[in-house]
Each structure stands twice: as structure tokens, then as C-alpha cells.
From TrEMBL:
Entry protein name: Oxidoreductase
Entry keyword annotation includes Isomerase: yes
An example Gene Ontology CC term for this record: cytoplasm
GO molecular function, one term: isomerase activity
Gene3D superfamilies (alphabetical): Diaminopimelate Epimerase, Chain A, domain 1
Coiled coil (UniProt feature): none
Homology family: Belongs to the PhzF family.
Keywords: Isomerase
Annotated catalytic residues: E47
Top-rank lineage group of the source organism: Bacteria
Length: 272
């Protein structure tokens, strides 16, 4: 079967967040979980997406699951974008696509400019007291700490400024004790003229990802946080990882729209 590596939330190769994508076009169910996990481990990117078509009347067009090299996850933005990109560029599906996932039905809508907009559930944010040891693990004092709810499973941590976000070098082993998946560190952009409103970095040691390059699911929490602060529904976030990428967000109550582009960089045959 064909396997592809797609860089998501970018319009150029070797940036954004790479995801493996396997379209199981002849299947009506997913293969054994052990096989799915082994493929994700072999691909060894933050997530590998597996999708198979659904029959008419199923309430969605494709079933979709995501695996890190270590575990299955409940929600993943960049691998969903990558899957939608593969569906559209290969002609396997055209127009709007509905994915049945562990997080409900997620919709991907392509635009004429090549971008794709994802419709995801907005993360419910709950302010919490900073856990003991968080500042030491992260390497900086948090200004605000919020729980992002079960779908995202992170702590959202506001830090002093953009420079602090760029300079973080956390103790990942210590950081793993503070949330289900990891920590989203964020700050307001120093100069919005650069084309983004806030910056973030995401550390997910509990699912085998030290630092995720660009995280769509994290932006379902970043969007409501910064939309309230900046008094705008539509924003652009820069994820300041070494690969870097931008996510356009639009808050619509209990749903968040995430828009970005993607590019296929590798295509080949999976023989196992």
C-alpha cells in the first residue's frame, strides 16, 4: 500500500510538522492495533494517520485514527490536515471531507489557494494553580496555567514574553509529571507586524514526543485563550519549534477553525 510523508501547516518542504499518512482504500475496518502501532513506530514522526472509507449513511466519509511512535492519541490536527491534503491531491476524495474519530466528526474543507480548514472542538479551559515543580521543570515561572480538558490533555502555560518561549529548554522527564500529554508554553507576539499574534511551543514527553513541531490540537486551546485576551475571533499563531509553522485560528464558540497548508515530501510502498 502507498504511504506518504506530508509536512503540515507549511507551504514548503522540510518545515511544519511531518506526518505519515496511509489511506486504507480497500478496507472497511482498521487492521490490528499492534500493526498500526508498529507502522507508526517505523515512520517515527509525531503522528501517523490511518484512514479508511466509510459506507453511505455512516455520518462521515472516512474513519481516521492517529498514532505517535508510542501510543494512540484522541485528537491530532496536523495529521488530519495531512490526510485531507492526500485525499484532495490524489483524487481519493474531493471537496469537504468528514472524518469519524475518537473526538467526534471532524470536518476538513479545502480552499482554492490550496489551504485546508479543519473544524475541531474548542478545548474547555480551566484555570488551575501552578503545580509544584512546574516552574523548575519548564525553566521559567508561569504567569497563568490552565487545564485544557480531556481531548487535548495538556497544561496551557502563559510565560513572560516571546523571547522566553523561544529560549525554553525544559527538563522533559520532570515535565512529564504535570499533565496527561504535556505542556503548551505560550506568549503574546512581540511585534504583530510580523504576521502572527501569539507564539507557542509544545512539549509532549508522555506520548513519546519531546517537542512537537506544529500542533493543531494545541491551537484549539490557544485560540480561545488568546481570542479573549486580544478581543478578536480570528488570529494567527506561530509555533516556534526548530521546524516552525503557522496556524490560522477562528474561534466559533464550542468549535475552532484551524487553517493551514501542506506539502507531500515522500511517497512510497509499505511492504510489511
Amino acid at each position: 500500500m502507498r504511504i506518504r510523508i506530508v509536512d503540515a501547516f507549511t507551504d514548503r518542504p522540510f518545515s511544519g510538522n511531518p506526518a505519515g499518512v496511509l489511506l486504507l482504500t480497500g478496507a472497511h475496518a482498521f487492521p490490528d492495533d499492534t500493526w498500526l502501532q508498529n507502522v507508526a513506530l517505523e515512520v517515527n514522526h509525531a503522528e501517523t494517520a490511518f484512514a479508511h472509507p466509510l459506507p453511505e449513511g455512516a455520518g462521515a466519509d472516512w474513519a481516521l485514527r492517529w498514532f505517535t511512535p508510542a501510543t494512540e492519541v484522541a485528537m491530532c490536527g496536523h495529521a488530519t490536515l495531512a490526510t485531507a491534503h492526500v485525499l484532495h491531491t490524489t483524487g481519493a476524495d474531493e471537496g469537504q471531507v468528514r472524518f469519524a474519530t475518537r473526538s467526534g466528526v471532524l470536518v476538513a474543507t479545502p480552499a482554492a489557494d490550496g489551504s485546508v480548514t479543519l473544524d475541531f472542538p474548542t478545548a474547555p479551559l480551566t484555570r488551575v494553580d501552578p503545580p509544584g515543580g512546574l516552574a523548575e521543570a519548564l525553566g521559567t515561572a508561569p504567569l497563568t496555567v490552565l487545564d485544557t480538558g480531556p481531548n487535548v490533555g495538556d497544561l496551557l502555560v502563559e510565560v513572560a514574553d516571546e523571547k522566553t518561549v523561544h529560549g525554553l529548554a525544559p527538563d522533559l522527564k520532570a515535565l512529564a509529571a504535570h499533565s496527561e500529554r504535556g505542556v503548551i508554553a505560550t506568549a503574546r507576539a512581540e511585534d504583530p507586524v510580523r504576521g502572527y499574534d501569539f507564539v507557542s511551543r509544545c512539549f509532549f514527553p508522555n506520548v513519546g514526543i519531546d517537542e512537537d513541531p506544529v500542533t493543531g490540537s494545541a491551537h484549539t486551546a490557544l485560540a480561545p485563550f488568546w481570542s479573549e485576551r486580544l478581543c478578536r475571533a480570528g488570529l494567527t499563531g506561530l509555533q516556534a519549534s526548530p521546524r516552525s509553522g503557522r496556524v490560522r485560528t477562528e474561534l466559533r464558540g464550542d468549535r475552532t477553525l484551524l487553517t493551514g497548508r501542506a506539502v507531500t515530501v515522500i511517497e512510497g510502498d509499505l511492504l510489511a
